[in-house]
Amino acid sequence: MPTIRLEDVSKIYKGQKGGGGLRPGRRGFETLSRVNLEIAQGEFVFFVGSRGAGSSTLLNLISGLLQPDEGAVYLDQVNLSKLKRRQEKKLPYIFGRVPQEPSLVRSATVFENLCPPGRFGRVGGTLTDGPLIAKALALVGLPDSEEKYPGEFSASERRRIELAKAILYSPPILILDRITDDMDDDSIWDMMHLLDEMNHRGTTVLMATGARQFVNLMRRRVITLVDGRIVGDVQKGRFGDIV
């Protein structure tokens, strides 16, 4: 199980105006500024802060979707910026992700959405993935929905389908970017129970969220960001704790 480490990480966007969490830097506008952070295997971490505070950028850097402009992100002792192509191909099996913006293809069935790219339509892939997809959908409370289309579900249910996709291959690290924004309270609570069970089995869970009451109930590690900087990092914390 991997350990995540960020050393003096900054992300700078050039030619953008300030506001919305962006702040002037030496060469542009920074969404993250000199972040140092270590996350041990098996931790459950909430990232909280206003929109634009930098949590989405931070999660994308951790998962290798973005590269830092300064500093380095390590998975164990491996610098993610220096991965070889064959190593990069392994990242989707290390990180299960639910992005901030909904990602389901409306014209495809739930099965097609969850089946890995390039494998749908291949007999081997279908036989291999079918039971895993059925299991993942059952875990998120949507059994027997493989042949339905995303439009047949509520926004909350669609986010649960995306969670099923993220946990499909039991990745060691789950990254959930504001998944709770489109979910009702009952769905959030059910999801928290599932994530808690997975975490107790060793899965690292990293979640950016604005769901204050659930963060306070879970009492896990809470990291608070303001304008691209970590201003709070509290074990068994509450929403907005600053220490």
Automatic annotation (TrEMBL):
InterPro entries from the UniProt entry: AAA+_ATPase, ABC_transporter-like_ATP-bd, ABC_transpr_LolD-like, P-loop_NTPase
A GO term from the CC aspect: plasma membrane
Domain of life: Bacteria
Record keywords, A-Z: ATP-binding, Nucleotide-binding
Tagged with keyword ATP-binding: yes
Record-linked SUPFAM superfamilies: P-loop containing nucleoside triphosphate hydrolases (SSF52540)
One GO molecular-function entry: ATP hydrolysis activity
Domain (ABC transporter) ranges: 4-243
Protein name in the entry: ATP-binding cassette domain-containing protein
Organism of this sequence: Acutalibacter muris
Upper taxonomic lineage: Bacteria, Bacillati, Bacillota, Clostridia, Eubacteriales
